[in-house]
Amino acid sequence: MIPTLEWLPEGVNFLDQTKLPLEETYVLATDYKQVAVVIRDMIVRGAPAIGVAAAMGVALGIERSTATTLDALTAEVAIIAKTLAETRPTAVNLFWGIDEVRGLYNSLAAKGAPIAEIKLAVIARACQMYDEDIAACQKMGAFGAPLLPMQGTVLTHCNAGALATCGYGTALGVIRAAIEQGHKIDVFADETRPFLQGARLTAWELMKDDIKTTVLCDNMAAALMRQGRIQAVIVGSDRIAANGDVANKIGTYGVSILAHEHGIPFYVAAPWSTVDMATANGDLIPIEQRDAREVTHSNGRQMTPDGVGIENPAFDVTPAKYVTAIITERGVLHAPYAESIRAMANAARS
Ligand code: MRU
Hints:
The chain is built from 11 helices and 16 strands.
């Protein structure tokens, strides 16, 4: 299993995804501020991995704190949470990860637990979230595999694989599970401009698993769909609104329209921590705008004339009407999503 991130006695160790596929190197974050930089600079990326990284960041901040009173530590925890929350706005898993560990801290602090005990408990919770994420991916795989064709080519966009999670992956986990169950599946990976998660990361991790993978420029999928060379699309998500609208990597919306036009199923695989019941629809999802340099430069080389206008939204929203099914670790959701999502949320509460 690819070690995307790992809690170590020295700190949190991250596989540096900005260096892949050419270098397999690691970045050790020894305090929470470094974890924030690792998330912001996309050394770790992908919604579920960001969530667990943020949880570990809060735990690391608490563990390394020199505060001697609960009041002082509580004030520090607020700063730690704010610093991590300001890194990337779209993946709701970031806020879920922070809130999960902060919530545990708050409940132990309210009981007046000793600081040493609190430190051990928050570390244990963050590490448990790591294990839970892998288990959730494997469950998504089991639920989603039967939806994929027994034979054919599946298109994916961005990287929703082991690298985007603590292991196994969401969309790529479903592909892995289908292959493990005997499906004969090849993958088309959109290169995913401008950060090239498909070309660099999806291709790298699938080839490590000997899954036949072909990289496409983002503008090629339409022609291949028309030629009947794509049987299904599966992607991950950074935030799913209560009505089933799905935020994912920029370009996903276009792929969903193409799939709809060509009668190809369009699946989304995401853990329940990606579902944001507090956001009514996709128009309300905050979309991260990233540095223009990601568009103007490729491998350090300038590609555009000085001074030209640049757009760089990192995500777009696919309306629920284009989504054939949403695969979670709790089961598969179908339209009408407002009702199926609410029912799944209520079932979890009861
Ligand atoms: O900007 P990134 O690389 O963090 O974007 C990642 C995606 O868009 C993924 O598809 C999404 O987070 C799901 S990962 C299982």
